């Protein structure tokens, strides 16, 4: 169908007009392209530009080179050298500087409402950001000025309403050929926190930038961090898709590789790190995250090694609107990792959960950590670890909770010597408040199959249960209530507080109820020596408060119950420069003999009379001089009823102080043998040859049990006082005896000297003098009402110069010596019989009354020889006979005298009668 002619004329007219208009536009464009750069000089507006920047920012803009402009087909601007001054107080270096910047936009698309840029180039970009110690930043003043400018513009009428310009340009039509940054430099200096970051040699290159389209991005830079010094070489590559109108942001094919250097952390080694992954963020709908892979290693230094460490996130959902991310599965795996003496062959961590960055919460339904051949320290045997727990983190409250923590180790957690725990496990409820610096592990239970203490000492099923509370800022920890258990062998409860803020210290209390110690000692391979009593160590209980540091420990309010006896008091031990022991103990009753090795008989055999040492006598015993020089001691012990070496003592008390090798015992007192003993003693082991002084006093002592105990037989009985003041020196008891110098005072009453029978010996001697049968040797003794003497001790020879014995039958005085080393007696005494009724009825002794008789007592003290002086007895007898003959003669003379007197009287009477007649 043909068009009308009028129509064809109209169309030809419009075609002609359009052609003319197009030609005019082309000519105009050519004219503008050629003429505008010559007519429009941007450098003429330099001052206006710097003034405008100064008004808006308050900073000085410096333009160093010429400004360049282009018009067609690109509207472009170039800057050659520009800088923006820094804020006052932040130095002379500019805050922002660029060596060269260029940007171009297509003119014709711009006229059509489309933004099409060419390559935006920034060469030598430098941005310096800083924060002062008072918290003020070097961009804060610009923010404040711009904020005031916006407030002013809101109150100023606009010549054109915004609605008139809305929709002039569409973001969907926004297009940039590319962005290029070369030799950029970004600095951050935080003087408030003391941190500094520097990003240098920054190169960035992108492909075509279109909203909604994929933009390839590549970049590289060096990053330096201070304290500790860390340098990183970073290469970055990714595909980025940005769609603001749709609220969609996508990162694909992310590849980031870096090489970390830090002499402080890695020495001379380089730590490689690689990151790859993808993610989608959507404004009004959940996005996705993953898969993501972060790989570290391999690298190796003298003390550190990582063959491989990989973190992967398989898949996640990110809900930006609700600020929630759900991670289905997160894995961390590693191989052959060594650090600070610790090591493991493989590591596997798996978790998953929800991250709510809006509320600051992380909820991980399950976290499982497995490690093979884990060595916490270099000297520990490898173990396999398996830990499981749910984890809840609240960043706003700064708390982490693991309500069902469980850790098990397969193997022996032990050092190279073999001591340690076999198959230990730990469980509890962890609550960590890092804001307040506090942590709690409630219902903690540490259990192991066995505790190996080495050398075959194994304790089965050790267990600890407690609640642990810690203040990390103060480095204080408390375990209460604390329960310990070792199978059926031992259990205890208590509490303990530990602090490490100003040195390691601890205090608490422990209560171990009665248990049988022997099975525990058996498990510990402690071989107990045989004891006299078979039922010893049947029960033990301990209750005490304790307090200490790494160098000392003190036990207060100590109570120990052993086999029915109770000990109470305090004790302290320090071992910093020199071991120091201090105790103050009270014991109600203690029979030490029950715990000593058994003997062959109930009493020691009497010592032989030969003067030689008895069989089995260990001889001189060394004094522990080295031990006395190694530690200090301050002890006080009180025992209500003490049995020691078959000696029963009552209310025993000892106070001993040992310092610098000098031991002072003052007092050592006890009631024993029916009397009281009080002793002071000093042993000075500081010189090369130790010296000893001892001053015991025995009052009211019964000698019979004393002699029975120490001599094996009661050679001497009675009750009295012994007072010794002696000194000696030497390194063993033999030297002590040889160097002894002392004085012993003896005052005894109502006793008996066994095997020295003075009366019977006098009878025998008298019989021998009269040539009569003396009869068998006497087996009795000599009783006394009083026995006194002073014994001078010079080495093993003990001399008595003033022996005095009194009894109802005799009085005896003398002197002599005792050879303690040879156990020999050598005494000379004068015995005088008293005229008692018993003596007068004795036909053998009656003639010896009131006559001093020399007696020699010699020989072994167990069976001495008692020999009266026979010559003296004979002389006494001769004198007696002479006296008797004299008496007879006198009697005869008297009788003759009486007879003569009678005859003379008769003669006189007869003569007188005759005279009278």
From TrEMBL:
Region (Disordered) residue spans: 145-167, 593-622
The protein's name in its UniProt record: AsmA family protein
GO biological process per UniProt: regulation of protein targeting to membrane
Naturally occurring in which organism (per UniProt): Candidatus Macondimonas diazotrophica
PANTHER family assigned to the protein according to its UniProt record, in alphabetical order: DUF748 DOMAIN-CONTAINING PROTEIN, PROTEIN ASMA
Pfam families: AsmA
Keywords, sorted A to Z: Coiled coil
Coiled coil: 872-910
Compositionally biased residues, Low complexity: 154-165
Domain AsmA: 11-268, 521-792
GO CC term (a single one): plasma membrane
């Amino acid at each position: 169908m043909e068009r009308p002619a009028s129509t064809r004329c109209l169309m030809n007219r419009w075609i002609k007009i359009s052609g003319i208009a197009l030609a005019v536009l082309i000519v105009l464009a050519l004219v503008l392209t050629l003429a505008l750069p010559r007519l429009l000089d941007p450098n003429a507006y330099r001052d206006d530009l710097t003034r405008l920047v100064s008004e808006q920012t308050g900073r000085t803009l410096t333009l160093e080179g010429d400004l360049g402009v282009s018009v067609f087909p690109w509207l472009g601007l170039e800057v050659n050298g520009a800088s923006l001054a820094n804020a006052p107080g932040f130095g002379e270096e500019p805050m922002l500087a660029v060596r060269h910047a260029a940007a171009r936009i297509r003119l014709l698309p711009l006229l059509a409402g489309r933004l099409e840029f060419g390559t935006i180039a920034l060469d030598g970009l430098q941005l310096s950001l800083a924060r002062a110690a008072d918290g003020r930043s070097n961009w804060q003043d610009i923010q404040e000025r711009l904020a005031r400018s916006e407030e002013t513009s809101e109150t100023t009428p606009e010549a054109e309403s915004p609605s008139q310009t809305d929709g002039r340009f569409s973001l969907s039509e926004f297009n940039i050929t590319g962005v290029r940054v070369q030799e950029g430099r970004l600095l951050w200096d935080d003087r408030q926190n003391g941190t500094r970051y520097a990003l240098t040699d920054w190169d960035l290159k992108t492909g075509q930038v279109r909203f909604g389209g994929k933009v390839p991005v590549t970049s590289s830079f060096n990053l330096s961090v201070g304290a500790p010094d860390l340098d990183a070489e970073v290469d970055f590559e990714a595909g980025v898709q940005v769609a603001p109108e749709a609220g969609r942001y996508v990162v694909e094919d992310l590849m980031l590789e870096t090489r970390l250097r830090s002499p402080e952390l890695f020495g001379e080694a380089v730590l490689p790190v690689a990151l790859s992954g993808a993610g989608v963020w959507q404004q009004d709908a959940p996005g996705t995250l993953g898969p993501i892979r972060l790989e570290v290693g391999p690298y190796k230094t003298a003390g550190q090694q990582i063959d491989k460490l990989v973190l992967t996130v398989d898949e996640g959902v990110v809900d930006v609107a609700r600020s929630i991310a759900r991670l289905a599965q997160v894995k961390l795996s590693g191989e052959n990792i060594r650090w600070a003496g610790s090591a493991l062959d493989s590591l596997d961590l798996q978790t998953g959960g929800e991250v709510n960055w809006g509320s600051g919460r992380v909820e991980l339904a399950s976290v499982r950590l497995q490690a093979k051949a884990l060595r916490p320290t270099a000297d520990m045997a490898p173990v396999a670890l398996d830990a499981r727990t749910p984890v809840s983190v609240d960043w706003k409250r700064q708390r982490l909770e693991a309500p069902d923590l469980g850790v098990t180790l397969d193997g022996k957690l032990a050092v190279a010597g073999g001591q340690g725990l076999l198959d230990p496990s730990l469980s509890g409820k962890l609550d960590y408040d890092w804001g307040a610096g506090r942590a709690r592990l409630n219902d903690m239970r540490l259990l192991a199959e066995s505790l190996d203490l080495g050398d075959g000492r194994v304790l089965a099923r050790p267990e600890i249960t407690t609640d642990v509370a810690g203040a990390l800022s103060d480095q204080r920890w408390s375990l209460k209530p604390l329960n310990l258990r070792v199978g059926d062998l031992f259990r205890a409860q208590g509490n303990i507080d530990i602090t490490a803020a100003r040195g390691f210290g601890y205090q608490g209390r422990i209560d171990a109820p009665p248990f049988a110690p022997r099975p525990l000692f058996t498990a510990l391979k402690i071989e107990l020596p045989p004891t006299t009593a078979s039922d010893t160590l049947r029960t033990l209980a301990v209750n005490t408060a304790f307090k200490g540091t790494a160098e000392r420990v003190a036990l207060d309010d100590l109570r120990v119950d052993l086999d029915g006896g109770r000990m109470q008091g305090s004790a302290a031990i320090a071992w910093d420069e020199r071991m120091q022991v201090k105790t103050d103990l009270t014991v109600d009753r203690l029979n030490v003999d029950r715990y000593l090795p058994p003997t062959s008989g109930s009493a020691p055999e009497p010592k032989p009379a030969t003067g030689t040492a008895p069989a089995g006598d260990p001889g001189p015993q060394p004094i522990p001089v080295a031990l006395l020089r190694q530690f200090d001691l301050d002890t006080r012990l009180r025992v209500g009823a003490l049995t020691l070496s078959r000696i029963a003592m009552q209310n025993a008390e000892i106070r001993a102080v040992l310092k610098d090798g000098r031991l002072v015992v003052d007092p050592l007192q006890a009631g024993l043998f029916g009397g009281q003993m009080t002793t002071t003693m000093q042993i000075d082991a500081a010189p090369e040859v130790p010296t000893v002084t001892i001053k015991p006093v025995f009052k009211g002592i019964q000698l019979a049990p004393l002699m029975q105990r120490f001599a094996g037989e009661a050679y001497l009985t009675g009750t009295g006082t012994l007072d010794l003041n002696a000194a000696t020196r030497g390194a063993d008891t033999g030297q002590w005896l040889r160097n002894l110098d002392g004085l012993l005072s003896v005052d005894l009453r109502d006793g008996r000297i066994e095997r020295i029978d003075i009366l019977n010996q006098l009878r025998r001697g008298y019989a021998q003098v009269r040539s009569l049968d003396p009869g068998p040797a006497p087996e009795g003794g000599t009783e006394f009402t009083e026995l006194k003497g002073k014994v001078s001790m010079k080495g093993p020879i003990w001399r008595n110069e003033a022996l005095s014995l009194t009894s109802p039958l005799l009085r005896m005085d003398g002197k002599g010596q005792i050879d303690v080393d040879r156990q020999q007696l050598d005494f000379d005494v004068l015995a005088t019989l008293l005229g008692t009724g018993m003596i007068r009825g004795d036909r053998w002794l009656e003639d010896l009354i009131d006559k001093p008789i020399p007696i020699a007592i010699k020989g072994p003290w167990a069976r001495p020889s008692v020999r009266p002086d026979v010559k003296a007895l004979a002389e006494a007898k001769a004198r007696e006979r002479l006296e008797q003959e004299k008496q007879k003669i006198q009697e005869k003379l008297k009788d003759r005298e009486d007879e003569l007197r009678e005859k003379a009287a008769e003669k006189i009477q007869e003569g007188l009668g005759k005279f009278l007649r």
